[in-house]
Specification:
alpha+beta; histidine kinase; 8-stranded antiparallel β-sheet; EC 2.7.13.3; 5-stranded mixed β-sheet; 14 helices; Sig_transdc_His_kin_sub3_dim/P; kinase activity; 56% helix; elongated
C-alpha cells in the first residue's frame, strides 16, 4: 500500500497541524504536572527524580509549542514521537504502581505517528510502547500484579493497532484523492490527448513507485493495438509509443478484458500459495486464483517481480493499464489502479472527441475560407490581368509603355499563381516547413518593428512539442507581452525566448529599462493566462537594468 509522505511545514495546513499537536502535548504534560501538585498520592510514592522527569517533560513540551507558534524549525516529527515514547517510558518507570494510569500517554505517540506516517510507523510505535511499558512496569514494581499488567499491555496493543490501521487508511485515502485530482487536472483539452495520456501514466507510475507503466488500447473496428509505456531508467523517464498486431499484443491480454488482475512472484516452491496470479470477481468481490503459468510468462516478459492490471472503461474501444514493480503489490493497489482508469480515461475519450470535432470544424472552415479567398482575391486579380492584356493589345507597336505593361501582366500572373497555391495548401491543411507558432510570432515582431520602431528578437531553443491548441494560447501570451513592451515601457529593444525543459514550456519576455529603480509588479492578464494553463508567472530584474517576465507552463 502506497502512503502519502508526512506533512511538511511548507504545505497548506501543515503549520496548523504542527501547532495543534504541540499544543496538545503541552496541555497533557501541564495537566499531569498540575494533578501531581493537587493530588500527589494518585501517582503513588513520588521522589525527586519523579518530579524532575515530569517537570522536564513539561518544559520540553513548552519549548516545542513556542517554536511551533513562532514558526521556527522543529526536529522531524519521526524524532519527536519517538522522544515521546522515551519520555513516557521514564514516566511509567518513575511512577510504577499497579494503580498508575500514565501508560495512557503512549496513545498520544501512537496517534501522532499513525496519522502522520501511516500504518507501518504506527504499528512500530505500538509494539515499542507495549514492550517498554511491560518492561518498565515489571522492573520498577517488584510485586506487580501480572494479570493487571497483562490486561493493560494487551489493551495497549489492541487499541494501538486499530489506531495505526485507521491512521494509515486516512493517509491512504488522502493520497488516493490527491492522485485522482491530479489526473483529472492533467486531462486538459489544451494539452492534447497524447500529452495527457503520457502525463497520467507518469503520475500513476510515480505514485505506485513502479518501474514502468504500460497502456494498451484498441479502437473499435480496428485490428491494431496502441502500446504506450513510461519507463523509469537510470538516466530518467523514457516514453515510448508503438503499434502492435493482435499476435504481438496477445501476451498482454492474458487476463479477461473486464477483470482486475494481480500477480506477485511466489515466495518459493515450498510456499506456492503465497504469490501467483489473482483476479477479482466483480459479482462476489472475491479474489480467485488465475492461471499462474500465464501470469509468470507475462511477468518474465515484463521483467517484473510483481504487476497489477486493470481494464479501461472505454466507450469506443478496449484496453488495459499495467503497473510493473520490483516489489510486491497488494489487492488495494490493483483496486485503486482501476479507479484511476475509471477517473481519467473517460475524460481523455471526451478530449479526443472534442479534438476530432474541432479538426472537422477547422477543415470545413478552411474550405470556406479557401472558396472566399478564390472569390474575393483570385478572381479580381484575374480580371486585372485580363484588363492589362486588353490594354496591351490596343497599344500600338511603338508605344513606350508596352514593356511596363508586359511586366505588370507577368507580375499579376505570379500573384494569381501564389494565391491559388496558398488557397490549395490552406484547404488541404498542409503543414508548413516550420511551426505556425513561429511564423505568427515572427510576423507579429516584424509588424511591431515596422510600425513602432521596437526591435524584438525572437529565439526558440530546441523543439517545441506542443499541439495547436496550446500553441494558440502561447501566441496570445507572447503577443500580449510584446504589446506590453510597446504600451508600458520606453524600450526600443526586447527579446522573447521559448524553451521546452523537463516537461515544461518556459517563456521569457525581456525588455530594456532606463529607470534606475523599477517597482515590483506582475502583469495581471499574463498571470491569469498562465494560471489557466496550470502555470506560473513572475517578474525579475537584472543587474543590467533589464526587466524579464518569466512564465512556466507544464506540458
Amino acid at each position: 500500500m502506497k502512503l502519502d509522505p508526512p506533512l511538511k511545514s511548507g504545505l497548506p495546513g501543515a503549520g496548523m497541524d504542527t501547532t495543534m499537536v504541540n499544543g496538545m502535548r503541552l496541555l497533557l504534560s501541564s495537566a499531569t504536572l498540575l494533578t501531581l501538585f493537587i493530588d500527589p498520592e494518585s501517582a503513588g510514592k513520588l521522589s525527586k527524580i519523579t518530579w524532575l522527569i515530569f517537570s522536564a517533560y513539561t518544559m520540553h513540551s513548552l519549548l516545542l509549542y513556542v517554536l511551533a507558534v513562532l514558526g521556527l524549525s522543529l526536529p522531524q516529527d519521526i524524532l519527536l514521537y519517538w522522544l515521546d515514547v522515551a519520555w513516557y517510558a521514564l514516566i511509567v518507570f518513575s511512577t510504577s504502581s499497579h494503580n498508575t494510569l500514565f501508560f495512557l500517554f503512549f496513545f498520544f505517540a501512537i496517534l501522532t505517528s499513525s496519522f502522520q506516517r501511516g500504518f507501518e510507523e504506527g504499528a512500530r510505535v505500538t509494539l515499542a510502547s507495549a514492550g517498554l511499558f511491560a518492561a518498565t512496569a515489571l522492573f520498577g514494581e517488584t510485586d506487580a500484579e501480572l494479570s493487571r499488567l497483562l490486561l493493560r499491555t494487551t489493551f495497549l496493543l489492541a487499541l494501538g493497532y486499530m489506531i495505526a490501521y485507521w491512521g494509515g487508511s486516512a493517509i491512504t485515502q488522502r493520497s488516493h484523492l490527491a492522485l485522482l485530482r491530479d489526473v483529472s487536472q492533467l486531462s486538459n483539452p489544451r494539452f492534447g490527448v497524447d500529452q495527457t495520456i503520457t502525463s497520467v501514466l507518469e503520475k500513476t507510475r510515480s505514485y505506485f513507485n513502479g518501474r514502468s507503466c504500460l497502456l494498451i488500447m484498441q479502437d473499435k473496428g480496428t485490428r491494431v493495438w496502441s502500446l504506450r509505456s513510461v519507463l523509469q531508467t537510470a538516466t530518467g523517464v523514457v516514453h515510448t509509443n508503438s503499434l502492435l498486431s493482435d499476435d504481438a499484443a496477445s501476451p498482454l491480454l492474458a487476463f479477461p478484458h473486464d477483470k482486475i488482475a494481480l500477480y506477485n512472484q511466489p515466495a518459493g516452491p515450498w510456499l506456492p500459495w503465497i504469490g501467483g496470479a489473482r483476479m477479482l470477481e466483480p459479482d462476489s468481490g472475491r479474489w480467485l486464483r488465475h492461471d499462474d503459468a500465464a501470469g509468470a510468462r507475462l511477468a518474465e516478459l515484463l521483467e517484473a517481480h510483481a504487476f497489477i492490471s486493470a481494464p479501461l472503461p472505454l466507450r469506443n474501444g478496449k484496453g488495459r493499464i499495467f503497473i510493473v514493480s520490483a516489489t510486491s503489490m497488494s489487492k488495494t493497489d490493483a483496486l485503486f489502479l482501476s479507479h484511476i482508469g475509471a477517473q481519467a480515461f473517460p475524460v481523455i475519450e471526451n478530449i479526443n472527441l472534442l479534438d476530432r470535432l474541432a479538426s472537422q470544424a477547422a477543415s470545413r472552415e478552411r474550405e470556406k475560407i479557401a472558396r472566399d479567398l478564390h472569390d474575393t482575391a483570385v478572381q479580381p486579380y484575374i480580371g486585372l490581368r485580363h484588363g492589362l492584356a486588353a490594354l496591351r493589345n490596343e497599344a500600338t507597336p511603338g508605344n513606350p509603355l508596352l514593356p511596363e505593361l508586359e511586366k505588370l501582366i507577368i507580375m499579376s500572373g505570379q500573384v494569381i499563381a501564389d494565391l491559388r497555391s496558398y488557397a490549395r495548401t490552406f484547404k488541404n491543411g498542409q503543414v508548413q516547413s516550420e511551426p505556425e507558432l513561429l511564423v505568427a510570432l515572427r510576423r507579429q515582431a516584424t509588424q511591431i518593428r515596422e510600425f513602432y520602431g521596437i526591435d524584438i528578437a525572437l529565439q526558440i531553443e530546441g523543439d517545441l512539442h506542443i499541439n495547436d491548441r496550446l500553441a494558440a494560447e502561447v501566441f496570445q501570451i507572447v503577443n500580449e507581452g510584446m504589446s506590453n513592451i510597446r504600451k508600458h515601457t520606453s524600450a526600443r529593444h526586447g527579446a522573447v525566448k521559448l524553451t521546452c525543459v523537463q516537461g515544461a514550456l518556459h517563456i521569457s519576455i525581456d525588455n530594456e529599462c532606463a529607470a534606475a529603480h523599477v517597482p515590483d509588479f506582475l502583469p495581471d492578464s499574463l498571470a491569469e493566462r498562465a494560471a489557466a494553463l496550470g502555470g506560473t508567472a513572475r517578474v525579475t530584474h537584472s543587474m543590467l537594468g533589464n526587466t524579464s517576465v518569466q512564465i512556466e507552463i507544464p506540458i
